[in-house]
Amino acid sequence: MAMDNYFADQIFENLNNQEQTLREAEYDHCEFKHCDFSSFNLSSFVFTDCSFIGCNLSLAKLNKTAFRGVKFIDCKLMGLSFSNINSIGFSVTFENCVLNHTSFYQVKMKKTVFKQVSLEEVDFSETDLSESEFFDCNLFGAIFEQSNLEKADFRKAYHFKIEPNLNKLKGAKFTINGLPGLLTNFKILIEE
Prior knowledge:
- By secondary structure, the chain is mainly beta.
- 3% of the residues lie in helices and 27% in strands.
- The protein has one helix spanning 179-183, and strands at 6-8, 11-13, 26-28, 31-33, 46-48, 51-53, 66-73, 86-95, 113-115, 133-138, 153-158.
- Strands 1, 2, 3, 4, 5, 6, 7, 8, 9, 10 and 11 form an eleven-stranded parallel sheet that branches.
- The longest helix has 5 residues, at 179-183.
- The radius of gyration is 18 Å and the shape is elongated.
């Protein structure tokens, strides 16, 4: 790979999609701060051990984009489709982010950490979320169908509805308060 297509240990601040200042390349151990990549074409970019802090990536195109060991902190990632990313080594964490209306359809994302994340109407259909953790996450309207949720931790998640007979739940963790989200379709009344 040519040197102008590889960036390491750099900080990129206040970039925006209007200026088209970021080019397709491999970014290794880079930090992106307060950048606006909304509707930006990030297809075929490679991000390894990078951090996005206070960035907006809403509606960005992610065709064959690689995210390996990437952290998103205080970011807006609304309306994204992770379904066609480069899945080799895919590993992300989300903290204090908004991912509403995003799709992770058929993505393998074992052991993913979601901390204080809004996941309203996110599509997790056929997603492997085994051993993932949802801390203080709003899952209102999130879709779980044929999803692998084995050993996932939902004890601090809320507003979720998960059909036990449509998903793999062995070893998943829930609190008593989460029972209504598991039993909604059974039309069972639960009282304290």
